[in-house]
What we know:
single chain, 47% helix, mainly alpha, three-stranded antiparallel sheet, 6 strands
Amino acid sequence: xxxxxxxxxxxxxxxxxxxxxxxxxxxxxxxxxxxxxxxxxxxxxxxxxxxxxxxxxxxxxxxxxxxxxxxxxxxxxxxxxxxxxxxxxxxxxxxxxxxxxxxxxxxxxxxxxxxxxxxxxxxxxxxxxxxxxxxxxxxxxxxxxxxxxxxxxxxxxxxxxxxxxxxxxxxxxxxxxxxxxxxxxxxxxxxxxxxxxxxxxxxxxxxxxxxxxxxxxxxxxxxxxxxxxxxxxxxxxxxxxxxxxxxxxxxxxxxxxxxxxxxxxxxxxxxxxxxxxxxxxxxxxxxxxxxxxxxxxxxxxxxxxxxxxxxxxxxxxxxxxxxxxxxxxxxxxxxxxxxxxxxxxxxxxxxxxxxxxxxxxxxxxxxxxxxxxxxxxxxxxxxxxxxxxxxxxxxxx
Length: 397
């Protein structure tokens, strides 16, 4: 009698055929295998993690457990296949999603993006959870995903125009900004796109909301420092020494605050007189390579090789708690009247590089932008400065 393959081998052999929905597995650190669906439908690929796991088959009980888990996973896969076939035929979907609540879909969307390797940050997770709070404030907790239509979306747009900040730690009930309203609506659209991909709804109802009615993203002013203002900060003492080092290091590297504060010594590579930062960026989870100039290296804290391990953070004593207040005081002491945040250091790096002749593509790569159009915003700032400079002649003559 032919020896039967174990369950995992069976799954791998069955799923090699060409299908719009494939069951795949991802090996986890603990040796388990996470099952997920790899879906390619109507030109789009996405993944649906099933929260089902295969365990190492060390005994008969483990083998039977995997068998049951795979049976459930194959059933879900078959349901997705059936739903796609019916959708293509134009018939109404028989999937029993009528009882799925909108808030549960939002929660699932948030949870998926919080998983390690999902490419999302805690801040993004928090933004999705705040959206959930606003949806509850707008329509309660019992709205079903099937009830979300054009009128529901239009009503939510109107709600966002006057919505109050729902964070408990915020003083008073301030109205959310136009930028926040735009962000919440954008996430809402993304959640509904995901609902379409998973078969909860046939189409995204936000697409029927006229562009003129959708929350607009306001033009944001990018505060940055001139070269003379950076020199002022360099010459101005700061009682929080590590803050001065971290901020000026960001001015000369373009790294975000999260990446400066999270930087470890092992992410700084040295080869002779060449220094390089090579790290995974927190916001995008992409790897970034940034050469360190002499000015950038000047603001690195001193390292004791005998006591400081490679895993230790470079700016180890930094805390977010009072960072903004200390930065504001230091900037004021330097006589700079601008509103300066830590992120202004990143803007400073970009505008200085472009104004000194660096090309847009190179600056885009140094900043880790995935789209060069994001970097072009800084180029427009430089162009505006040039216009203002030329305009000074008109005032004289």
